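Sanity check

After download, print the first record. It should look like this:
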Amino acid sequence: MITRLKICCISSIEEANIAISFGASALGLVANMPSGPGIISDELISKIVKSVPPPISTFLLTSENSAEKIIEHHKRTYTNTIQIVDELKTGTYNLIKQALPAIKIVQVIHVINESSIDEAIRISENVDALLLDSGNPNLAIKELGGTGRIHNWQLSRKIVEQSRVPVFLAGGLTSENVRQAIDTVQPFGIDLCSGVRTNNKLDPKKLDQFFNSVFV
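Expected structure tokens:
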């Protein structure tokens, strides 16, 4: 199976073009967050989305946790995918699907302990994909991604084995460890941000090393 690569924290049309040129099948566009890298305005997200050719997926990373506000947020950006980085606390996934029937929904699961497996399997019934990351939404200032940390891949493997939908793996992935991550977890796709950046800028050399490590 070909592993899909999603490059996150895209900050400009230029970065989008660079990621696509190396073979990225999806781009992550980070909207307002309580913490983490790559945050850009909704206006810039919309501008980048308009420049991206099909069939590249564009992911809106939203920290909104109500269905109504997520729908409103999407209508300011018009990505073809919504990545919900926090727990959905108000409304339902079905409400989002009814309002935005053509848009894919990806729920982030922050893999912390065994309970994360149950959470992931339950949510997989209602979304189009899961994305496993290393944040911690329980902190005073929530960590909702972009931590650069690795989580327990054995827990992630259990989620992949039981999930009803495709699973992306994120969290501290680099050209040095991505092959081991893929072999261990067997994800549908890989998601990365800091692992291919230097001074917060997309680094073509690191991208080349990363893609070569994935497709050995």
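If your output differs, re-run the checksum step. Summary of this record's structure: The longest strand covers residues 104-110.
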